[in-house]
Design goal:
Blueprint lengths: L1 H8 L5 E2 L13 E2 L8 H30 L3
Antiparallel strand pairs: 1-2
Length: 72
């Protein structure tokens, strides 16, 4: 949900992969629409989406490290 929310603030629309899976087994996936010709605007949106994903993953990793440290 965080990825969706942050992408929308940048006017990038994504769809969770689970809604395209009959078994709802693609919860960690997303769907990209490829029906438009490639443009500099789409390229920038893809770069921005990647940056958002990297920030979220780094945040999640940092939270995990902190939780592991709390056991020490």
């Amino acid at each position: 949900m965080a990825l969706y929310e942050q992408a929308m603030t940048q006017r990038i629309s994504i769809a969770p992969g689970a809604i395209f899976s009959p078994s709802r087994s693609c919860g960690q996936c997303l769907r990209l629409n490829c029906s438009e010709p490639w443009t500099p605007r789409i390229e920038q949106a893809m770069k921005t989406l990647g940056e958002i994903m990297n920030r979220l993953e780094f945040k999640r990793f940092t939270q995990w490290i902190q939780s592991v440290d709390s056991f020490g």
